[in-house]
Amino acid sequence: MHRHELTDEQWRRLEPLLPRHGRRSTRGDHSFLNAVLFLMKTGCPWRDLPDRYGNWKTVYNRFANWSRAGHFERIFKALQLKVDKRGSLLDATIARAHQVAAGGKGGSNAMLWDALVEGFRPSSTPS
Fold first, then answer.
1. Segment holding 68, helix H or strand E
2. How far lies 125's CA from each of 115, 119, 121, 122, in Å?
3. Mapping DSSP to helix (H, G, I), strand (E, B) and coil, where does residue 42 land?
4. What is the pLDDT of residues 66-106, one digit of tens each?
5. Based on the structure, what is the number of domains in the chain?
6. Does any domain span residue 69?
7. pTM
8. Which of 22, 49, 101, 123 lies most in the core, judged by the most C-beta atoms within 10 Å?
9. With 0-12 CB in 10 A as exposed, 13-18 as middle and 19+ as buried, what is 39?
10. pLDDT in tens, 12-33
């Protein structure tokens, strides 16, 4: 099993939720879902999909068809956790950046002034 693939337990939980109509793929649903997970976790382009998942265009077409048909939305809704409103806990931790990380360009203005003085120096001396 590779790093970005479903474990056997995850696959057993997911398999009953998959659509059962349409033609069957040669590599199977397990390989297709592993390919989708790989793409979503790594952020790589479709064309860079490893060969172990099959032709990238085939995987893309199947992904597009499943998305249009609403299969992923149905699977995600079925896998959602039921929230117990009496015992739920939300974490609102905030990681603040330091003031110097605000995005402004740092450094001294001395170099800027030197450049301005040089740029506006008269080109000839008055008589």
1. helix 56-69
2. 20, 15, 10, 7
3. helix
4. 899 999 898 888 888 776 666 666 666 766 776 666 666 66
5. 1
6. yes
7. 0.58
8. 49
9. buried
10. 888 888 887 666 666 788 889 9
